Every structure is written in C-alpha cells, then in structure tokens.
User: What shape does this take?
Amino acid sequence: MNEMNGLLTGSITLLLWTLLIFSLGMYKPKWPLFFIKEPNRFMIVALTLILFMVAWTLKGEGERRLRLAETEKQHATQIAPAPEPVPVPVPATEKPAK
Assistant: This one.
C-alpha cells in the first residue's frame, strides 16, 4: 500500500520518543522524570523498556492489519464465475381437454 497505517506511524513516533527519553534519561535522569523527587537510571531503563514493548506491539498490529486489508482487496477483485443459463419451461397457451 502507498499510504502508511496509523498504527505504524504511531509506533514509529513512539519509538522516537522512547529513544529521546532514554538518551536524556541516561544523561540526566531528572530531565525526563521531572515529577519524581529522586529519579534514577533504573527507572529510565524500566520506562523505556515498557515504551519499547508498546511500540513494537503497535508495529506488529499495524502490519497485521495491512496484511488483512491486502488479502481482502485481493478477494474483492477476484471475479466470480458467470452463471450458466438454465432452460425455462414455456407456459401452456391452451387449456387441457377434459
């Protein structure tokens, strides 16, 4: 397909944010975890692992949906066989004799 799925775009975006959080957190853990009093690097590693698993799951689901859409498109384009003509009985025009 020419256009990307929303789940794939979201997973790539989440992976980029995860890399940014990881790199900033390894340099100064206080920057990405500004709301925690004493953050440490273990918290950064745990957070980035969780975000990485979520992003990878989104990527897998997006690829699965793309494959399903492609197979549905292939099934829709297949032409059904033409029906064969069936003989129709001609109605009687005269009344039968008693």
